[in-house]
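I have been asked to look over a protein record a colleague put together. Alongside the sequence sits a line of tokens, each denoting a local backbone shape. Please read both lines and tell me whether the tokens look consistent with the sequence. Take the sequence as given and treat only the tokens as open to question. I have pasted the whole thing underneath without changing anything:
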Amino acid sequence: MNVDTGADPATTVARPISVWRQRNFQAMWSAHTVSQFGTQVTFFVIPVLALTTLSATTSQLGIISSLETLPFLLVGLPAGALLDRWDRRRVMVTADIGRAVAIALLPIGYLTEHLSLPLLGAVGFTIGLFTVFFDIADQAFLPTVVSRQQTADGNSRLEFSRSTAELAGPSIGGLLLQTVAAPLILVTNAVSYLVSAVLLGFIRIPQAEAPKPPARTRMGTQIAEGLRFVFRHRMLRALAVATGISNFVGLSGALGAVLTAYALQDLELSPGELGLALTVGNCGALLGAVLSGRLIRLAGLGRVLIAAKSMSGIAVVILATATEARGIPTLIVTTGVMACGITVYNIGQVSLRQAITPTGMQARMNASIRFAIWGTLPVGALVGGYLASLIGIRPTLWLIAAVGLLSCLPLMATKDVRALRTFPAQLP
């Protein structure tokens, strides 16, 4: 496809225009960046808010984390079928507006003295519901915004943006917590979602290049088609299983349910110190975004995916050895190793999925994958919070590390993944 940039078509064919110079990608990247900054501040503030303002236990933190990702289990599959029919850009704009309204309820609740753990959980669930549609549409939309030959480059830019937000978000959140009440900080995220919606409104895709909706078949049939496509495809199946296992124990699963309590209570860090440690450590994500392409060219895509997937388990082993005296440097190293591995893996696996999936199946593929890999998050969060209250946080961390290290086995056991040197030819 040729993206409408005003360049001569012959030049576009001979030398593809950089994604940075394509107006549609500029708008998408800008919206993605603004939204990610607000989201990262929120991800940092909400657990601190629950612990310090509402005195939540680790079990309650697990429930709140679980509610945020539960919609992927409940509506993830039908969302994929619907998004292969609907205008994906409009869905993303609607989702941004919905998330802005939902997050605004928390500072309103604080100011009116109605802030509570049930409200926190309800808002988290609502944001998760809109995020289901936004995230599935986002990944399915990119191959329409840029040429399919440039999806890996586009994913790298978006991942770099996400990494930058992860780098600055905790630091901003930690600093703001020193002077502003936690619920009021969430106004930042509400504004960021509205700005993202406006930016997405500038994207214009020529009608000839817009994905054609599938024939009006029953939704159940479309969902089944997406699931069959993913789980009958050896590479997609391996990616889904490996990522689902690591997400079960990851930052949005079991680890996310205990990390804030571990840092603030066991390691006796302040919110500002925790934010500083996460900020410095997330430099690893920037490193991963910069080096991912070179690593794939040097070692091959399959080997890079396997190595990157094992890094989260290694990081949690480091985290479990932390003491009060070296809490900050241990958190920095842990976050750096984990962020680097997650970034490299995500760039590789998302680009691989997009390369081997036809355009008309993109949303259903993403929904089926998300159902498998995000569906483990609410269960992981519940299990992490429960285990921490039952056996303690540090033993729970050792269990998380063990499962994280095993998550690369489905990739190692799949010859098609092991043998990959680069991305397969793009499907139409």
Summary: Residues 211 and 360 are 7 Å apart (CA to CA). Residues 23-52 form the longest helix (30 residues).
